[in-house]
Amino acid sequence: MPEPFDTSHAPFDCLTASQVKQCRQAIDVAYFRRGDTLLAAGDSGDQLFIIIKGSVEEVSEDGKETFSHYTTDDLFDVPAILNGTAKHQYRALEDTLCHLLPADVFLAIYHTNQDFSAYFDTNLQRRQQLIAQARQQQNLAEFMLTRIDDTNIQPALRVTPDVPLKDATAKMKAQRCDCALVDYEDGSCGIITRTNLLHALVLDGHDQSVPVGNIATRPVISVERGDFLFHAMITMTRQRVKRVRVVDDQGQTVGTLDLPQVLSLFSTHSHVLNLRIARAQTVDELVLAANSQSKLVHTLFNNGIHTRFVMKLIATVNEQIMEKAFRLIVPEPYQQQCCLVVMGSEGRGEQVLKTDQDNALILADDLTWPECQTVMEAFSHTLNLLGYPPCPGQVMVSNPKWVKSASQWQQTIRNLAQSANHQSVMDLAILADAHPVAGDSQLIDAIQTPLKASLTDNMLTLNTFVRPALAFKVPLTVFGSLKSGKEGLDIKKGGIFPIVHGIRTMSLEKGVSETNTFERIEKLANIGTLAEETAENLAEALKLFIRLRLRQQLSGEQQSNYIDVSALPSSERDLLRHGLHVVKKFKESLAYHYHVRD
């Protein structure tokens, strides 16, 4: 053949060795001049076209309406092969070279290879999973594929609460373990460790005959058997524990899992970063710890770790950095009389790389704190040192507008909802993602309660609120192809923001309290507001957009939202095009539901 057929790209990367041989023996190459018709409407689907170079447009039978464009590595027309005849015609926009795969060979593989046939499913989630699987086979770290099972669960030493400290210590020594689970009669579980025993006997002066139930820590943090070890790492990081109990699907104890086991598989040592943050005693020490976060992100992403997992872990680390800064800067007597909240992508837990500060402070109504403004200015300065630059719009605690008492915040939100103008809608959107990270977390009710009361089923205000989601055009041509400017394709305006703000609007309408967009989508699907397939496609599209943007940013353009479409492999261009069509359909449903007219 003049050109070798590359089977490393989706969907051909899931073929067996014999199927690859079958394809290469049957495939042919054809050359088409500009203006030639490759396939006419009504023609039988005798072969699959895979473009080697050149470009092809799909048009209506009369040639007046264009549906799509195809270029290098794109393929067509699968529906013609499956249905017997082509619905549209395909013509070359320039001199074009194509591989031709006979229909009988394609169908033989299609009907025997489930992964190959599933690639042509219209469900975005399934298609993205297949491409992700291929990438995982090449690059995914082993620990991400490892689940908590009997091969890594440690047998648990279990004792009753009445066992004396001396006997418990002897049992732990005999079994060479450093902890034991304590089973209480009410069904709850506690834990004792060597550290517990040491403190009880040496520091607290307990006698060796004291029952272990008197010193055990409970409740015990638990994870489920069958979950990913990566999730166990997130749990340990968030809860600041070194051991977790493993339970089955009935909630019964099956063993334990400890930090050394997870760290042995977790080459990026995120827990080490967590420990450095926790041990920081000065701002300078915290800065040194925070500076290693970007390296963690690079390592996770380059190892092919799932985007949502990366976001969860980094969101946890960000929270801990900000909480530690809060405790270092805010005088201790005031720390539990106020609540620091983050908003925007940080509030939603969807920011991977550090971004501008976007925060607010809720003060207890009875708090008197004359130095509050000075302290908040120092706090914003500290966040800047930690890599979080000031917000250009001044949405941060150094701005008195974003520091209010609980009752003041309640009244502010009611006023914003009533006015419903452009600026008030922007402020409401910011506050809708508020998430507590330090101080008294219960004070967040001062924001969440009036938001729910003011906006749930308030279609008049939501009509204005939803409009920003409809303001930016989806970067698709009238023919349904990707539309990219000189700088590239703006994935934030064209894809990420419409989903995030549209889902935010629907969540406020239904009184959904979650702030993370993925969790909002799941909740809206659970209550029947979103169809299951729509929810899956929106979630998968958002993950795709975030991953593409993150890869672009990690390549050196940290603040860029533009995607270089020409640099994407055909499989990802196809996914991007599909994802943007999901956004386009979603925006149409938003406009219809909230009665927004152009």
Radius of gyration: 28 Å
| Helical content class | 40-55%
Shape label: globular
Q: Report the sheet with the most strands, covering strand number, pairing sense and barrel closure.
A: 4 strands, antiparallel
Contiguous runs where pLDDT drops below 50 for at least 5 residues? 134-142
Describe this structure in words.
It holds the Pfam family DUF294_C. Keywords: CBS domain. It comes from Salinivibrio costicola (Vibrio costicola). 48% of the residues lie in helices and 14% in strands. The chain has 26 helices and 20 strands. The strands form 6 sheets. It has a 4-stranded antiparallel sheet with strand order 1-8-3-6. Strands 2-7-4-5 form a 4-stranded antiparallel sheet, with no helix packed on it. Strands 17-16-15-18 form a 4-stranded mixed sheet. The protein is globular and about 90 Å long. About 2% of the residues have low confidence.
Supply database-style keywords.
598 residues, 4-stranded antiparallel β-sheet, 26 helices, 20 strands, globular
Please give a quick description of this structure:
The chain is an alpha+beta fold.
